[in-house]
Amino acid sequence: MELPMQISAAAFGNLVEDRRTEFRSAMSRLGAAVNIVTTDGPGGLAGFAATAVCSVTDSPPTLLVCLNRTSSAHPAVDANRVLCVNILERGHEDLSRLFGGKTPVSQRFAGAQWSTLETGAPVLDDALVSLDCRVKTISDGGTHDILICDVVAIRENEGGQALIYFDRRYHTL
C-alpha cells in the first residue's frame, strides 16, 4: 500500500507561490483594454485602473467588472453601487498609472477633466467610450468581487485608438 506523500508547509507555500507567479505571467500575455472605473455617491469618490472588464450581453446592456477587495476603491464602490467604465485611448498611459497606483484620490482625478451622466459616477471627458452603470449583483471571486453591472448611459467620442495592456506594456490599436 502506497502512503500519501507528505509535504512541508514551506514547500507547499513555495508551490502555491510558484503557481501564482506562473499564472500572473500567463495573464500578462492576455491583451486587454485599459479602463478607469470610477464611482461617486454616499460612499465617496473613488477610481481604479482595470483590465478585468468585459461585456456580458447587449440585451439588456450588461458589463462584468472585477474589483480587488483590498483596493482603496472597494468600500466606495460597495457603498455607492454605481460606477462608470471609462475605456482609455492613446495618450492616457499616465492617467492609467495614476489610477493604478497608490496615488491619493484627489490627485487621481486632478489629472483629467470629468463630467457625469445618469448615475453621478465620474465620466472621463476624453475617454474613447464611457459606460455609466448601476451594480446589479456582486459575486465572490476569491480575492476579487465580480460585479455585474447594468449599463444605463453611454458616451462615445469620435476617432481615437484603444489603449491596450499586453506583456506588461501599453500598446494602441
| Average pLDDT, all residues | 92
Strand order, biggest sheet?
A: 3-2-6-9-10-5-4
Number of beta-strand segments:
12
Helix content: 10-25%
Strand coverage percent: 35-45%
The biggest sheet, with number of strands, parallel, antiparallel or mixed sense and barrel status, is: 7 strands, antiparallel
SSE string:
HEEEEEHEHHEEEEEE
Backbone structural class: alpha+beta
Bulk shape: globular
Alpha carbon gyration radius: 18 Å
Description of the structure:
- It is a single chain.
- The chain is α+β, with helices and mostly antiparallel strands and 173 residues long.
- It contains 4 helices and 12 strands; from the N terminus they run αβββββαβααββββββ.
- A hairpin with a 2-residue loop joins β11 and β12 (169-172).
- The radius of gyration is 18 Å and the shape is globular.
- It starts with 8 loop residues before the first helix and ends with a strand.
Fold topology:
Elements: H1 9-27, E1 32-33, E2 35-39, E3 46-50, E4 53-58, E5 61-68, H2 74-80, E6 82-87, H3 93-100, H4 105-110, E7 114-116, E8 122-124, E9 129-141, E10 144-156, E11 163-166, E12 169-172
Antiparallel strand pairs: 1-11, 2-3, 2-6, 4-5, 5-10, 6-9, 7-8, 9-10, 11-12
Brief sketch in words of this structure:
The protein is 23% helix and 42% strand. The protein is built from 4 helices and 12 strands, in the order H-E-E-E-E-E-H-E-H-H-E-E-E-E-E-E.
